[in-house]
Each structure stands twice: as C-alpha cells, then as structure tokens.
Task: structure prediction
Amino acid sequence: MTQLNEAAPQGTGLADTLSRSNLQNWFTKPTSKSLVMNVGILIVLSIWLSFATTQFASSENLTNVIRQISFVGIAACAVTPVMVAGGLDLSVGSIVAVAGVTAATFTAQAQWPLVWAFVVGIIAGGVVGGLNACLVVGMKINPVIATLGTMYIGRGLANVVAGGSPVTGVPLEFNDLATSFLGSIPTPVVIFVVIAVVMLVMERKTVLGRWTIASGGNQEAANLSGIPVNRTRVILYIVSGLAAGIAGILINSRVATGDPTSGAGFEFDVIVAVVLGGTAITGGQGTILGSIIGVLIVGVLNNGLNLLGVSTFYQNIVEGAVLIFAVGIDEVFRRTWRSILRR
Amino acid sequence: MAIPGTASVGPVMDSTGGGCLLAVEGLTKRYDGVHALRGADLSVRSGEIHALLGENGAGKSTLIKALAGAIKPDSGTIMVRGQPVELGTRTDSMRRGISVIFQHANLVPQLTVAQNIVLGGERRRLGFLRDDGQRESVQGVLAKLGANIDLNRTAASLRSGERQLVEIARALLQRAHLLILDEPTASLGIEDVENLHRALLDLRESGMGIIYVSHRLEEVLSVSDRITVLRDGTTVGTRLASESSTADVINLMLGRDASHVFRKSSDARESVVLKVTDVATATGLSGVSFELHAGEILGVFGLLGSGRTELARALFGADPVRSGSIEMQGEADRKRTPYNVARSGIGLVPEERSAQALFSQLSIIDNMTSGRPWLYSRFGFIRSRRRRELVDDMSRRVRLKAASMGQIVSTLSGGNQQKVVLGRWMLGGSRILILDDPTVGVDIGAKVEIYRLISELTADGTAVLLLSSELPEVVGLSDRIMVMFRGCVRTIFDRPGATEEALLRAAHGEAA
Result:
C-alpha cells in the first residue's frame, strides 16, 4: 500500500498547503475543474462584451450588474448547500413574494416599524423553509415534488394575503433598503457580500459544512458514521428559506410595495446559477464560490444580451440552453468521476 | 447448540487478556416473515480474531447489523464486557467501542482522507471545525497500520486496499475495542490482503477483538483464532481455527457432506452452441475466447472486478462489443440487443435480483412472463388464459411456493424470487442460460432446488454459463471452469483438475 505513494507525511505549514501534491489534489476535484473553467468563461465573456458594446465596461453598468445579481446571489449561496446535501429547493421564488407581501402588509396595515416588518418577512421565508424540511426530511417526500408543492402554496398564500394585487399604503421608506448606498456601494450588494461570507465560513469552517457534503456524498456512510443527516438537512432548508426571504425583502423594497407576483421565475435563475457553478444535481458536490461565479456569469450574460438589444424572448432561450449545457457538463464530469472511483 | 472444543459464553475472565469482550445469546430477527436470525450465539474475547462464517443468507449480515446498531433484534441479548446493552442506534454501538467496516465502501468520495477518518468525530468548538489538530493523530493511526497515504487525497482517488485501511484507521481513531470487518478482502489483490492481515494481527496484539467475515475459507482459517459458523440464522458451532480444516467448515456451513448437494454426471454434448472469439468491450473485457457446448455447464469464476458480470452483459447484448465475435448457433443476423438475444433463445439471470431482474411491485405472473411476450400474445394483444396456463405449469415445474400466481414478488422469499426469474427464461425453453450468482441470498433448501433445476435443464440440452463467486458451487456443478482475471480469461480447467485452491490462485492472477 505504500508503493504508489510518493508523498511524505506532511505538517500543516503554509509551504505544505501550497505544495505541488496539494495543488494536484485540488485539481482532481470536479468542483475545482468547473470553477477554473467558469472563471475562464466569465473573463472571456466580459472581455468580449466590453469590445462588442460601448456601455458594458462603464462603472454605472457594472454597478448595475452587481446590484441585479445580488438578489439571485443571496438565494444561491443558501440553495447550494441544500443541493450539495442531496436536496433541492424550488420554492425560493415564491418565498420572495411571501416575504415581500408579509413585510408590506405589516407596515401598511399593522403600522409596524419598518425594521420589524422586514424581520417578520424574513421569518416568514424561514417558516416556508421549515415546511420544506418537514415534507422532505420528515415525511420523506421527493424534494422536487415537495418544494414544487410549497412553491404553489407560497404563491397562492401571497396572493390571498395581498388580495391579488400589490399591497397599497406602504410608506416611502420601504423603498430605501434596496436603493440606498453604504458609502459608494449599493446596500443589496453589501448584504449579498455579508451573506456570502457567512455561508462560505459555514461551508468551510464548521461541522455543518462538512456534514453537508457527507450527507449528499454518501448518505449511508454519513449515517453509519453517526452524523445527524436529518438535522443537517433541516437546518439547510430553513437557512435557504431565510435567505430567500432576505432576497424577497430586497426585491420588493426595490419596487416599493409587496408584490404577490414578485420572484416569478426566480427559482429558475437561482438553480441555473448553482448548477452552472458546478453543483451536482445528485448531491455531494458543489461549492458556494462556484455558485457565486455561476451567478456572475448569468448576470453578465443577461446584461450583455440587454445591451446588445436582444429581446427577452431570446434571452429565455439562451438561459434555458445555458442550463442544459451546464447539466450536460456536470454529467460528463460525473462520468469521469465514476471511472476514477471504479479504478 | 453444542460448542465443542472451546469455552462457551461465560463470566468475564481476567482483565489482562482473554476477557470476554462480546457475548451474543439467542439473537432473533424477522424480516417480513423471513427468519434472518433464529437464535444466533457468538462470543468474542479481547485480543482475538474471530471468524464469522456461513453461506449467503445464513444471517451473518443481519448479526453484524444488530451489533452495529443498524437494526433492532426481536429477542436475545448482547453483552459488552459482561454488561447487557441495547444497541438502538449507530451512536450507541460506537459509544460501546464497536466499529463496523461494511462491505461496501463507507467513505464519502468527495471528502479527503483526513476528513473521512475524522468523519462524525470532528473536533469542534461551537460548531466550528478544529480538526487541524486531529491531523497528527490521524497520521499516527495510519502509521500504526503501516499505511502511507496522503491525507489530502480525496477518497475517490484511493485504491480499494487503501480505502480499507482508511476505514480501519477511522475505527482506531474512535478507540474501538471491537472491530467488525464484513468481507474485507472481497475486492483486494493478494498483496493488499497480506497487508491487511498484518495490520489485523498487530491490532490483535494490542488487545482488540476482531470479528472477521469472509467467504474465503482458507484465508480466514490462516488469520483467525476461532471461528463461529452460522447456518439458517442459528449458530451451529464455534471451533478453534487451528483445529479446523476447510472441509470441516464447509460441512458445518452446509449441514451435510457438501458433495451430496451437487450433481455427478455430465450432460455435455458435441455440438457447440456458443463460440466467443477475442471479445473486447469498453467495460474492461479483452481477448475473451471460449466455446460452450450443448448441455454443458461452464463455470465462470473470478473475484470482484474480474469481468464476470461484464461478460454476462456483453453476451446478452446489454453492453456493446468493441471487437471480436460472438457466434450463437441459430442466431439470426440482427443487431445484438437484449431483445433480439432473448428472442433467439438465451436467458440471463442477473447478479442483483431485486435491482436487475424483478419488477418488485408486480405479480408472479407479470414477472415470469416479462421475458418472452411473444409466447402468449397475438398482434400485440395479451392472451390472458394462455399466459395463465404457461405460468401455472412453470410454477409447478420450479416448485414455487406462493399463495397464488397473483402474489406480489417482493413478498416472496429470496429462493422463490429466484425461481420466478429462472422460470422466466425456462418459459419457451432457452438454448443458453447465463446465470450470474444464481444462489446469492437464497436459503439452503431453495439452493438445492435451483441446482436440481440446472441439472434438469442440461439433461434437455440447455447450455449453462454459471458465473459464481462461491467456490464449492462452481467446483461442484461445472463440467469445465473458466477463471477470469482483470477482464481476461486466465485459464479453463477441466473438472478433474479444478481444486478450490487452484481456482483461487488463478483468480488472483497467479500462474496455474
């Protein structure tokens, strides 16, 4: 068992971390490969767009792109671990509406202070996440079906509460959260960065992050190692609901009302970004950093198509094609992965 | 049960060595009406390697699962260090110092070696990982096992021998007192097996109790101190390994002289029904050539990954053949797909019954008639009465034990399920039957009946390709035995020249 191993026992110094064998190990991971490839795609796409259009490279446009992607980005950071743990969350789009309508109703009709109304909206998102957890983890319902169900239930509830049209009588300050700046950076972007950092720490530095990969990578092994797989998944679903709730508050703040139709198709944008970012739909594999790059690619692509004057109909076609392409690449990687396993 | 030659379960002996680490008494467990365990006893001391033997379906896995806390036994006691314990969950079992290495890899392929070894026991504070500090102890346990594996490699990149050692390292890190290994050598080469055994002997010296489950009798006898044999869910004996021969153990396992189970005469005829020349596939076969005669049983033996199953799939048209030729007598010149192959009179009983052969929610009728629909249909319409007659006749012929032909197959015992699959290909008659481990998970009684059916079929001229991982079965039934190694045909033995030892050596790639 020693003959194949050239690597000597290692310490934990910085030089070791950067050693060649570690880099080799890093490159054998499929998530690393797709990360490298995606960064390449993002750079090529950006360079091409800055030559093809005059506005793309302007600071206003780039700020605009970053602001636009921050909503999807917030949700993607939390949906990624759900998928890595072997689940799926299709309800995030409806949670956007639930959170927005809840917050707007509490300020407009119950006259709650804005901050508390936002908090209640976010908690409403967490409650839907908890419902997803009950269905998927507790009742063992397939995550596609369970979250498809809560997606419809959530949308319906938002419409019932709002009475089928945007909530009226919302104070003007409701709009401030999404449109204000902290220094020279738009507030939604700051929130996105904070959430991304928190989720990255969770992924890399906590037991929960480790158990997330184990639960999705080999559920049997995770169980037999005494890992609380169910508890891990419950937490991840609730976090996903809370994050989608935050995105929902921001999206509805931007339009200055609680709109029950807001976030339609949002779940699609999130899942395209996450899958494009290298997360396997079968679980066990995927990184939050990868998803953030995925979000950037989708954001830059959409912005570029807008600037090039491509109609939204064509944009739909492009986005759908991107999703299929991303899953196709994932499938190819998984096949090579399996052949490594078999060896 | 008489336990000759050894001390039976008794009070705890002195603490220095030979103390009774684990005592299992009268364990029973039923699954959907099938008795998996009906009174199993086992006692393991500290500092011994104790082999747990028995045929497939004898209850070894169930016993191990009970010790692992993965299932709850219906009755009986488990005592650890003289204290009765309840092992309700995996954590309970781990806390008692019991560590189980299951047959199928229990590593998370995406995590690194170090992360896998500490999995579930990560050092942490307030939920934050502090497992950098564990690297030294991880390095330590790997060194103790004589393994030099880069801690940062992903588990997916490990060879099976390395994977095994990583799992043992995990058990050591958890300070296990009792290590249970389920078929640890099933997929290992000779060198890896020796390494593993050396590591186990070291662990024994340090006072660990080890339960070793394996089908490779000689290997087991050479490494273990005592053996316990299970048959049909009951302990039939505990012996000293040094005082037992392979033949004794087989007799204990089968409960009778092994030679009676198998047939005596050969039905092989002159005519060749299958001629395989230099076949290679993308699934790993290369240069496979052999002939199969009418009425002959050609045994195919090989270890896991030797290409046995791949051969069956290629012959049946389930995987494409890259080069070489497969000629079947009377086969129409059509594309080799499972449909066309089945149509030309060839049947396949695949390795994994529930996943590859049965439609578990459907009835016996539906399952038995799923292979050759043209026997009972006209213009695409099913003729129910004809189908019914066919199934009634066949179920009598295979001696199927079922309430009615409408019974759902998942409620049948393993042996009866296998008879349904066999019946599927006996309907309409098969010129060639490919049987891939046909007696896995089947109790002794049904096994004997399956052997009887095989003999009946060959008497009628059906050629049988018997792929098996059970040596006594291959040796006892086959007219000739082909041994595969890494996708190639290693040798073909005639029956008189085939001893279990010679087969095993060939299967490990040694010169015959």
Observations:
- Chain A has 15 helices and two strands.
- The two ends of chain A are 15 Å apart (CA to CA).
- The longest strand of chain A covers residues 181-182.
